[in-house]
Amino acid sequence: MKQNIYDNPEFFHQYKALLQRPSNYNRLLEQPTMKSLLPSLTNLEMLDIGCGMGDFAQYCIQHHAKHVTALDVSSNMLSIAQSENAHPQIDYQLQAIEDYEASANRFDCITSSLSLHYVKNFEAVIRQIAQMLRPDGVFIFSVEHPIATARRTKEGNWIYDEQGKRLHYAMDNYQEEGIRQQTWLVDGVVKYHRTIATIINTLIDHGLSIDKMVEPQPSEEAIQRLPSIEKELRRPSFLFVKAKK
Amino acid sequence: MKQNIYDNPEFFHQYKALLQRPSNYNRLLEQPTMKSLLPSLTNLEMLDIGCGMGDFAQYCIQHHAKHVTALDVSSNMLSIAQSENAHPQIDYQLQAIEDYEASANRFDCITSSLSLHYVKNFEAVIRQIAQMLRPDGVFIFSVEHPIATARRTKEGNWIYDEQGKRLHYAMDNYQEEGIRQQTWLVDGVVKYHRTIATIINTLIDHGLSIDKMVEPQPSEEAIQRLPSIEKELRRPSFLFVKAKK
């Protein structure tokens, strides 16, 4: 999370353009899955880690959450959040989760969409989250799927034939956890690969119990709107975990 | 489990030869991981699903289990078990788990090594296991890793360059659960691919809580004894789950 690629002007310009497309992975796959995993939000005290432009925080308030603390490391993101999704019950903070302090048992629900693969010390962050969550509280997050982050390469992982047809997805280096430098919109985006076992066991070791795992599949409608998303059936891009304290 | 490839004479001949090698995946990777996940077995009532030649059942008795019910669908396997690993506290039964009946809460510990990917109806078997397990009982199993079973192909999934160097592992068809016909020792071995999310959620939906996941890595010693096992660092062959009722 401390990596702040979102304040790189070129990255941000391209990312904003991507997010504003009516058909993108966030709108068609990630956000519908995240919303499907939420409990009733009525009167919940929430923390959203990596809140971006604040659409999700706004959604939570519209669905009767009591209050959302919404963290992001990017001032670019937060200035859009403040102008487009400001609300008296949303507290936007320019803050990395690693540096954020809150009293124990403060939140009923903690969420994070596609941000924890930027975190270097996953265990420390999960320890923090487990402390901030009240007993029976819910933690729901998505990360890039370990199948997708495993291979140490800057090239894409889809392998094509000479006619440009996708043959299969290349997997490698699965057990080598750590930095993956990728080209995504710009060069040198740093993400961290962890195995599925590490992700799950870290939660359990910090007193969280696994409630559900989701490897989302695109709906028929999503495939009609963005045909290339059909490849999600061949290998998952995202992994969701819902856990309880 | 009802598929009984182990009573195919050609398969069995080759399988036996494989298992008798001092360095194979069972000895170097699967069994050490399974044993590392076991609780203290003292005085436990155990069920081993897909017991094969009975070495594991014998190990459990040596480690003070009270009794092991050991099921297998292969009479070839069980005749070796009876001659090499017979014990008054082990009850070998020629039985598929799907057809096995036991009273509720009967077992303290249920294990299964690399057999549940032969089961067609995973949910029904997990329901059965959850019923047969006593409260606080432990269920530990390994299956072929969904990363390894995903791709619908009879060829191998390692992709080589012209010099025969392994380039990467091919992943595909991940979300298409169901039959995978593979060539393993003989043609037409039928296994079932399921996603990681399906495996985990099926356990949770039947009242089991996830205690640990393991994607085993070979030890230095294992790599010295069988250098080709190093490729397990590039993609996992096995997935272990330890769950509690």
TrEMBL record, chains A, B:
<keyword id="KW-0808">Transferase</keyword>
<dbReference type="Pfam" id="PF08241">
    <property type="entry name" value="Methyltransf_11"/>
</dbReference>
<feature type="domain" description="Methyltransferase type 11">
    <location>
        <begin position="47"/>
        <end position="141"/>
    </location>
</feature>
<keyword id="KW-0949">S-adenosyl-L-methionine</keyword>
<dbReference type="GO" id="GO:0032259">
    <property type="term" value="P:methylation"/>
</dbReference>
<dbReference type="InterPro" id="IPR013216">
    <property type="entry name" value="Methyltransf_11"/>
</dbReference>
<dbReference type="GO" id="GO:0008757">
    <property type="term" value="F:S-adenosylmethionine-dependent methyltransferase activity"/>
</dbReference>
<protein>
    <submittedName>
        <fullName>Methyltransferase domain-containing protein</fullName>
    </submittedName>
</protein>
<keyword id="KW-0489">Methyltransferase</keyword>
<dbReference type="InterPro" id="IPR029063">
    <property type="entry name" value="SAM-dependent_MTases_sf"/>
</dbReference>
